[in-house]
Amino acid sequence: MNGNDVLEMDSVSENEEGETVIGMIEEEIVYPEEFLPTYHSIKEGANVAKAVEVEFNGKKDTLFFNDGVRRIDFILVYEDEDKKDFEKRHTYARRKRRREFFEGSLMKMGMELEATQSVVDEKLMFVKVHMPWDVLCTYAEVLHIKLPIQPNDLSSRPSIWRYLSCITKAFNPDENLIHKETEYFTAPFERDRQEYFYIKDRDLFFTPSMRSRMAFYILSRALYEIRGNIKKFGITKLLDSGVYKAAYPLHDCRFNVKSIEDDCPNERYLLFQEWAHPKSFYKMQPLDLIRKYYGEKIGIYFAWLGFYTMMLFVAAVVGLGCFIYGYKTQETSTWSKEVCDPDIGGQIVMCPQCDKHCKFWRLNSTCEASKKLCIFDNFGTLVFAVFMSIWVTLFLEFWKRYQAELEYEWDTVEFLEQEEPPRPEYEAKCIYEQKNPITGIKEKVPYSTCGRCMRLSVGMGTVMFWILLILASVVAITIYRLAAFFAFSTKLRTEDLKELEPLKEYVTPQMATSVTASLINFVIIMILNMLYERVAIWITDFELPRTRTEYENSLTLKMFLFQFVNYYSSCFYIAFAKGKAVGYPGQPVYLLGKYRNEECDPGGCLIELTTQLSIIMGGKAIWNNIQEVLFPWLKNLYARHCSGQSIASDKGCPRWEQDYHLQPTPKIGLFYEYLEMVIQFGFVTLFVASFPLAPVLALVNNLFEIRVDAWKITTQFRRMVPEKASTIGAWQPILQGIAILAVATNAMIIAFTSDMIPRLVYYWSFSVYPYDKSYNHTMEGYINSSLSIFNISDFTEQSRPLSPAYNITTCRYRDFRNPPGHPREYEYTVYYWHVIAAKMAFIIVVEHIVYFTKFCLSYIIPDVPYAVKEQMKREKYLTQVILHETNLKLVTKRLKPPEDDIQEGTIQKLSAEELDFD
């Protein structure tokens, strides 16, 4: 018999032992050579365990096959085409052929399968997958899974928090429900040395998350079709083509009802009660149980999120203190008093801020805006910006230490990228040969050197195109600002509109323009995010990264570059571009030769930057929570009620069918959760000088975010396939880059966006009478000194306002220029250059001090705690002794040579039996 024989078997038959065997398809199939033994065994009716069809035994919470012995490690779901009337029979016949070939491949690889019909929908079939002990041992060695060799015998050092245990106990999960795990020294599993591992019970030696991870590894590499020399494999392709409707590991119980099965650990129920339930919002996270149930990749995310939230508490307290300080001093600020004073601000006539249709206006019309600006633009903001620069360094350094502890405790210290298996999508495209520079062996690769360069070039070009598209949207928003400011100016400055009179005191044209532009910008950000998401995934798939880690790092970099420009570009524009090149009323600067460049409020652009940040941060948090909570809940509700199911019938379904009706897990895992938090981290650090309440808002959001994410993955989604991870991946260098950039941005915001430096220059120099040493420093007269004078007769025809001047000959504008009649009229004054010099000196001094402090802190704080280093050395020593030196019998069996033989110059040789190794 050859590999092209035709199987002519009934769909279901029985072998000699009476086991039910699903027959193969009745058409020609091309089988691989390694599959032929399995083919013959099926043809001859041998005893095989392939998709045995059984009826549901009524045990809805069971996690085992019908025999109650073999544990379910994975579930495959497909729709039985034989029970449907299809028009495209050829398509569904091909699906059936691929599915049966795939299941045969799984059987060849040692898996055991059992099929059960759905309780609710007779067209659905659930294939339960079990991994026997020998298969588990084989793939545990392939995947370098670390397993216990002996209990940890090192005494742990007492924590400094033990004296507060009576207080902290209330914030820890209930120890009666979630017991502390026993600590073990571990080593990579070796199948031939099983006796040296700490195996008390074979059924419990490999945890369910380990078993699911190994099962998914096999499913991702099992063949489902061969055409000539092309081999097609992987469950991912079968899911995309509709051969299977779903593939997932099982939850161990319902989240809100404890299972009564004796072998069920009820870990999902415990996670919901002590972690995801709203009543547990104040408790610490049970990270060990999260890692045990969902894997290290999920565990490290929640560990990072919890640590970040805890550190935010300190920043939020300081930021709230700065906000309260500014709120208390807004009424006593000298320069805001001058703006609101009818005899000072009320007598200052400001020049129109747009051409022709804008009118002259009084400075005291911005009284309320000036008071609000004092809340954020004060000396406390400077202190807080320096504090946050130090805070971010401490956060990153302490996180490295905490991450090192988790790496050791969770056995990911030696999880290296070269040990990570290639992605199935990568292996499927390997058609070229290339010499490995390390091993010297020729290996299969999916592209040549030129092909790789071409793929990377296409990816980089596409990313740059989308970034330019974002910048184009920023230009469009800027043009809207100019047009909106003109419209609001003509409305809010019109004294005849009595219906707008109540708004004039509180709403300025700048504020109205900023709020509406921020809302429009937020909508554009959300739309571009949805469009670019698919583009970034397509580009990364096109590049064909080798491993899962490389894939995620590549996608992370692309998405973050886009999101960085998308979210922060408008903030950078307001902070560093708006109002910086506007000229003066007689010679304004025009954008695109048509639109007059936008000016800041007389108090500066800081209040607009604060408005922009608050709208984007708040809107982003609300939208993300809607996406994460409401959408999955509505989808599950629809699946249960609108598709012919109800919660009542769901209670009678077995465990695997209940999980099927939950939402499928995202293909890129927790990528968007990381992205959301890193973007938030950027808002908290990059622009914190303009918005001290940013850490407070971030803290409140994160307290909800932890529980929302926990509730979502515990109750609304199928169980994720556990994955290994030692760090937060590419997000770590991104956070470090943001921390470095934050020092420069905050220093520049204080220097160029805030009005603090001009005030300090005036306070320490120009406010003092030169011959009166007893005169105290004061801010009186600052407003008058910060406004230049313009002669209205110097307006050009293009900029001359149409409204009458009401017997005034001059108006004021925000700048430091010489008055009309001066030999160098409308040129910058000496005071302007003093202010510029002070701003540059401030940036240089602050940056150097902060960067030096960051460097010192990074050097002083070790990345790995001393206690963890000791435990790692102890574990390596035990691994060497137990797994290697025990086999070197040459050391233990060597006999001391007799003295006579030594004197005669002979050496006693060991026998062949003594030289044998195990």
Automatic annotation (TrEMBL):
A GO biological-process term: calcium activated phosphatidylserine scrambling
Which UniProt keywords are given for this protein, alphabetically ordered? Cell membrane, Glycoprotein, Membrane, Transmembrane, Transmembrane helix
Q: Which GO terms describe its cellular component?
A: plasma membrane
A GO molecular function held by the record: chloride channel activity
Its localization reads: Cell membrane; Membrane
Domain named Anoctamin transmembrane is located at 290-875
Give one Pfam hit by family name: Anoctamin
Similarity section: Belongs to the anoctamin family.
Tell me what this protein is called. Anoctamin
* Taxonomy of the source species: Eukaryota, Metazoa, Chordata, Craniata, Vertebrata
